Amino acid sequence: MISDMMGPTPPKSASFIVTIYGDVVEPRGGVLWMGNLIEVCGHFGISESLVRTAVSRLVSAGQLVGEREGRRSYYRLTKEARSEYMEAARVLFGPASQTSGFKFLFNLPEDKEKQAQSLGYVSIGQGGWIGPDRGTTEGLVSDAVGFMASPEQNSPELHRFLAERWDLKSYVDQYEAFIDRYQPLGKRIDGALQLEGATALHLRLAMVHAFRAILLKDPRLPAEFLPEDWVGERAYQLFVKLYRFLSEAADLYIGRVFEDGNGNLPSVTDAVRKRLANL
Q: Using alpha carbons only, what angle is made at residue 81 by residues 75 and 86, rounded to the nearest 5 degrees?
């Protein structure tokens, strides 16, 4: 079942470890025993040597810090990484951002372009950038000239302009592929499917890994400027349905098996409850 959810090839080790920390570890304190990481990744075809190499790279990148107690190694999210992971969790599990217009940025420094792209901005040439106005630009405006903009009319020409700038067709294809892969599981849970804790966790990790790869790159344009019956919304509703269903058994399993330096991780924390409540 898990191989059906993940596809024919194992996920990239570093990216999948980021998913594990984001879904399981960050809302439970940010620390995990290396043995747990190796065991979980093994279920997805990622070898111990690949896990250790990926962790080493994440340490070098300032994402993780190693801690040792006796013969055991634990890895903690750095303060900066926790901030990044919390922002990603806000997109995945928080209330939908209310966007009603766009923002133009001009004279954006080159070293800020990657950050702008991560916030859904695209270049329109001549040093100009356009992106959805979510009420914040994460400090970009202090480094550029910013203008708020609202289209005068919701016309077919506007939709073509937006679709070309953000290549919405590629997101349609990715969301449809997600639905095709996970809809069978959605139908099975309607039939009172029961899963063991380990299976529930592995399925949840597979799903989160697939969905975050799409959603975190999706510019999440204002709803009124998206195509009718936007497939991203249907994909999100499937994600919510499956995440809620899988979480009870998965979280109990986490509390029984996963460890930090103080013992077992808690099954549920306030952060975990908040995620589920926001879905």
A: 115
Q: Which helix (H) or strand (E) holds 72?
A: strand 72-77
HSE (side-chain half, CA atoms, 13 Å) at 61: 12
d(CA 273, CA 27): 10
Element of type H or E holding 33 = strand 31-33
Residues paired with residue 68 on neighbouring β-strands, in sequence order: 73
Q: Mean of the per-residue pLDDT values for the chain?
A: 87
Q: How many residues does the chain have?
A: 279
pLDDT per position as a tens digit, 79-118: 988 888 888 888 898 776 666 678 888 877 887 787 778 7
Q: Looking at residue 145, what DSSP letter applies?
A: E
Q: How far apart are CA 91 and CA 98, in angstroms?
A: 12
Distance CA 18, CA 176 (A): 24
> Alpha-carbon distance 240 to 275, whole Å?
11
The model scores a pTM over 0.85 = yes
- Three-class SS state of 113: helix
Please state whether beta strands 64-69 and 31-33 pair in parallel, antiparallel, or not at all (unpaired): unpaired
